[in-house]
Every structure is written in C-alpha cells, then in structure tokens.
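Example record

Each entry pairs one chain with its bound ligand, iron/sulfur cluster.
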Amino acid sequence: MTDTSFFSAGLKFSCKRCSACCRYEAGFVYLSKNDMEKLTGELKTDSENFIKSYCRWVTDRRGKEVLSLREKGNKDCIFWDKCCKIYDARPLQCRTFPFWESIVSSAQSWEIAASGCPGMNSGKLHTGKAITDCLEKRSAQPIICRRGK
Ligand code: SF4
Ligand code: SF4
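Structure tokens for the complex follow.
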C-alpha cells in the first residue's frame, strides 16, 4: 500500500502547458483497456489497427511486455502535433500526471520530477484525497500486458 504521509496535506500543481512532458525526450505512455476503448472510439478504429499505428510493446521493470504509445523519430509523442491531438481522450497516465505512485511516494521523487515540470509546486493545491483518487484510478485500470515472466 502507498505511504500517503508525504502528500497527505496536499501538493501544488497547475500545468503551465510548456509541453515538455509530451515532447523531446524518450518515455513511455502506458495504456489500459479503458484508455484503448476511449482512443479507438475517438479515432474510429479498432484495437488491432490502433496498436499497429500508434503503439509499441515495451518491457517494464518486472520483465512484462506492456503497451505504450509510440514516439516519433524526434521523441515527441505520436499524438503531439503543436498540441495533443487526442486531448479529450488522452490516457489516464497523462490525465493523472504528476500524481503517479512513482512520483508521490517521497519528497525526493517529487522534487526530481518537479525539476522537469514548471507546473509542480505552484498553482492549485490538490488535496491528499484527490491524489489518492488518482492512485486508485491507476490501480483500477491496469496497464495492458502481453506476456509475463
Ligand atoms: S511538463 Fe508540467 S507544466 Fe509542462 S506541460 Fe507537462 S505537466 Fe504541464
Ligand atoms: S497522449 Fe497527449 S498528453 Fe499524453 S503524452 Fe501524448 S501528446 Fe502528451
């Protein structure tokens, strides 16, 4: 279970729309079944074609093959083109940033992430309950996995 002590009094975050988290650097945007349903509905396609066109299988820390969005050659997200082209249907991972377990688990991991995101530690105060809700949504919507060790 996540230790909530670091964020129980809330954390400040308001996106400054700098686009740094959608562009420039390699990274993974993992997808759940729910994400896939929303995106295939938005793009009027089926999951097979969606995976072929926009996704890649990557190996996570546990050695499992999980589904992630693809990047362009310049490392921008496949859906970045001056803005997020699927904003209303964007994956849960994008919706819940920076309230991910890997980030809110300690002050140190929060500050490391904040060094690359000007929206963290400023703007709206998100309550501990709101942050816990983000973590619970992630647990309830597991990332699509193809194979495990
Ligand atoms: S890096 Fe932070 S401020 Fe910039 S777009 Fe991403 S969430 Fe918003
Ligand atoms: S899906 Fe949209 S919000 Fe998420 S990383 Fe790609 S461009 Fe950014």
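The CA atoms of residues 66 and 95 lie 19 Å apart.
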